[in-house]
Structure to design on (147 residues):
């Protein structure tokens, strides 16, 4: 006789003993996941981002699947990116304040571009020196078919 949530296994304890013993193993059904409020979702994702708890730890603590938490993190990252793009200019800004903000962003972006170009030049120089000193071709030939 079996009831939902209980699984019965037959196991023979001793082969010389002719009597069979039954051992019942209780299977605990997991609690269905409840809907989680937005504030709790944000709290969980923030704890993971700050390194206070791992994704697995959050899954166990809040009884939410890991993949669900990862999906929340992806959605929250996307929404924060979209909000960051829209909130760059505040509605109460004047034309001069907005232009100053844009000039500041342009200056920051040009510095970042200059830094990345400098890094690229350093890497190119390092590859050229390594190729000439070690006589090893590092760069891939253009037009070579991928295997």
């Amino acid at each position: 006789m079996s009831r939902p949530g209980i699984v019965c296994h037959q196991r023979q304890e001793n082969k010389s003993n002719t009597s069979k013993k039954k051992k019942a193993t209780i299977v605990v059904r997991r609690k269905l996941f409840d809907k989680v409020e937005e504030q709790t979702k944000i709290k969980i994702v923030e704890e993971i981002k700050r390194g206070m708890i791992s994704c697995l730890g959050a899954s166990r603590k809040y009884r939410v699947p890991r993949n669900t938490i990862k999906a929340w993190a992806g959605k929250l990252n996307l929404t924060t990116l979209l909000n960051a793009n829209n909130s760059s200019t505040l509605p109460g800004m004047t034309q001069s304040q907005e232009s100053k903000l844009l000039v500041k962003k342009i200056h920051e972006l040009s510095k970042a571009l200059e830094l990345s170009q400098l890094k690229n030049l350093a890497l190119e120089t390092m590859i050229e020196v390594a190729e000439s000193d070690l006589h090893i071709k590092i760069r891939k030939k253009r037009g070579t078919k991928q295997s």
User: Anything to note?
Assistant: The chain has a mean pLDDT of 77.
